[in-house]
Amino acid sequence: MKLRLVLFVALLTLGAWLGQSMMKGSGYVLLSYGSWVVETSIWVGLILILSLAVVSYLAIHLLVAALQAEDRLRQWRAERGAHKAMRKTVQGLLSLAEGNWKRAQRLLVSGAHGETRLINYIAAARAAQQNGDYDRCDELLAEAANTTKGAELAVSLQQAQLQLERHQYEQCLATCLRIRKQFPKHQYANKMLLKAYMALEDWQAVVDLLPQLIKHRLILGKAAAQLELKAYSALIEHIVKGRSAQSKDAAAIMKIWRQVPKAVMEHKDFISVADGFVRYLIKLDAQKQAESLLRHLLTQNWRSDWVRLYGWVKGQDEQKQLLFAEDQLQERPNDAALLLTLGRLSLRNELWAKAMDYLQASLGIKEDAETRAELGRLYLAQGDHAKALDMLKQGAALQPLPDLPLPQAEVS
User: Fold this and answer.
1) Residue 225: is its pLDDT beyond 80?
2) Which residues of 145-166 are buried (b: 16+ CB within 10 A; e: fewer)?
């Protein structure tokens, strides 16, 4: 308010001064150019000069505005197109969220404009994927890669993810391997690579990939432990059931076995896998490897069936094998299965008296047809036919037999 008052007073003062100046004298201005002569007062000359300046300013302003009109029109059209494309993009994303795949794909493609084209084409590719149009999906991903410089990684990751969803595991595997080659420091591709390996049941590849996944914390805690257990279990079972040359090579499969982490080896759910593996070694007649593995397993899990099995295998050093079993007897003096195994190991070492003592002790703790059969065989070898026959009869009596007619003994 004060500023306006000051300006008003200043204008009044200026006007009064100009009025006084014009009343004192009009002055004289003469302009001559060639045959042209202009004569006027100084005040009229000033007014003409000011008018000319104003007209010149307006003319220049109009000329500049005319020159900029085309650019402004172009800019207006671009902004209008961008707003229109944005509306289509938003509508397309809403349709995608609502599951209207065809409409989403159409709107997203038509709304691909400017810097958002990459997002539009990737989202449209997902819509095409959900609609089952895999060829169009791949075409849209290719267009997405061409829209933005440096978008190869993002597009390739999307492609691998979509291939996983299609169950195209071989193609996904190839895509992930290409990503790892081009972007070795990027780790997320390894997570999809893991899924592809698992789907293809390439358990050796899964086992080889596990350390890197754990190192970069792509799998954590219990999930990592469960994945390790699953991978190693599947790998061992694959070997046991396999028909390849590697599955028949005891040294090769033992090398794989040694890769199994201690935590996995000690897990209760791995016991059945270990049992199948050691029996497979026995089937391959890999007696030394089976004995070594059984000895290790028994120190972790004392199982009666493994104890019995330990008496069947022949280790590299039969004397050390017997000593190991005898060491276990100190903690388990009344274990019938262990005493049976000790009797068999004593026979392997040709310790006949010790074998007899162990077998009789086992039979005294638990009635068992297998123990009686071993005793009967030992009695027979020693020439004690009566005891051998008695063992045979009692052992047979332990097994239920059908009621069948038998011939009568002839009386002489």
Assistant:
1) yes
2) bebbeebeeebbbbbbbbbbee
Domain ranges of the chain: 83-143
pLDDT at 404: 47
**Mind listing the pLDDT tens digit for each residue in 280-325?**
999 999 999 999 999 999 998 999 999 999 999 999 999 999 999 9
What b/e readout covers 181-209, taking b as 16+ CB neighbours within 10 angstroms?
A: eeeeeeebbbebbbbbbbeeebbbbbbeb
279, 310, 354, 392 from 373: Cα distances, Å = 23, 18, 17, 7
Question: Is residue 200 within 8 Å of residue 169, measured between CB atoms?
Answer: yes
CB atoms within 10 A of CB 96: 20
Site of tokens 């493994």: 306
SS3 32: strand
What is the C-alpha separation between 35 and 63, in angstroms, rounded?
32
Question: Residue 373's pLDDT band (boundaries 50, 70, 90)?
Answer: confident
- The SS3 call for residue 29 is strand
SS3 state of residue 134:
helix
In this predicted structure, the answer to whether residue 14 has a pLDDT above a threshold of 70 is no
